[in-house]
Amino acid sequence: MVIAVIGSGYVGLVSGTCFADFGHEVICVDKAKDKIEKLRNGQIPIYEPGLEELVDSNVKAGRLSFTTELTDAVRKADVIFIAVGTPSRRGDGHADLSYVYAAAEEIAASLDGFTVIVTKSTVPVGTGDEVERIIREINPNADFEVVSNPEFLREGAAISDFKRPDRIVVGVSGDRAKSVMTEVYRPLYLNQSPLVFVSRRTSELIKYAGNAFLAMKITFINELADLSEAVGADVQDVARGIGLDNRIGSKFLNAGPGYGGSCFPKDTLALVKTAQDHASPVRLIETTCSINDQRKRSMSKKVISAVGGDVRGKKIAVLGLTFKPNTDDMRDSPALSIIQALQDKGAEISAYDPEGMKAAVELVDNVTFGNSAYDVAKDAHALVIVTEWNAFRALDFSRLKEDMAVPVLVDLRNIYGKDEVAKHGFSYMCVGRPD
Ligand code: UGA
Predict the structure, then answer these.
(1) Confidence (pTM)
(2) How many angstroms separate the alpha carbon of residue 154 from the centre of ligand 1?
């Protein structure tokens, strides 16, 4: 089985590498020459634990290669995965499908023999139909089927998510494509991951429904965190108390500064747009989007109140910039909104992140970056944990207290407890737990 993966971004690179690890021959294609050159030299363009080693071993085994030549890859392939980006379209929030359709056009001319073309990118309902139409128009005699196979991996846990998925969703109608997809995923369903065959449109909707539901679940617990603060309850105990009910489930009930990243914000918005276009609004998701947008900025109020009501001229040290740990991804990170809101109120910001600072430099102004938590905490009036990197889970509070102007910790990820911090002389604020 020869697999071509078009687009060597997060999803394309991880999927292609894991397919190679299953034993398939995989050709990863990308237009960006420098990216392909780096990959050929064993350099990975993103930070993802375990990926570099897996790329290396599969390249050495001769199963994984990288190229900018789409035509050759398509000609050889039995299966082609389209894994290009579908960012928010500027102005209206719809998913921008121009990269997907451009890939379809390029693929069309070079198809050779029966080929299964799979959309792995997150695409709105009906995109598979359009991909099929484009290819048919350009190459009327081509023998192909278009399948939807959304990806559910998370950044930071991408390889284990890909290799041990809760399920694999395949939107397919023809038997030939169904048997090819069964072959592609054989190692996984042998490992008991269910293969769920549905219609193509259903599969496309499942991806958005899944992300929207998770975004809604996080937003639900975030609102309950605010309510817990107001009534003197503990949101972590509320989450545990409801999460042990199997119908609810305990995952994605960690209250925090709001969800960010390259997926939830853009996918919830795209679902809202699709639903509006079909005069079938998804009001829970509309509300989820607006609550989350407001929440990210409003976290600055916690910091302001923790330093006595005014941040003007005070140094605030921010720990964690990426939208979650174990990634260098800064897209829609809550840290960006919080920093901006604090700067608007006159705060001076210093910040540290183990992997995100390279990207952050391009996104924020007037921030002093440091090399460690201790470095940025010097003379600060508050330390604010925005992202729960492991490096911040065992801070030396005695050392921090000596260096800070005032020992205040605002823990937006609830990784500490009031008592353990108070014994070092720190005042403590968190999310949804009694202060
Ligand atoms: C998300 C989904 O979890 C994946 O299943 C999906 O494949 C991916 O989007 C995608 O569509 O490509 P990801 O964005 O990598 O994955 O990260 P998550 O772990 O889902 O976290 C998203 C955001 O929610 C982060 O900002 C995180 O801090 C926040 N979050 C998550 C919470 O605030 N509380 C939680 O309990 C869980």
Answers:
(1) 0.95
(2) 6
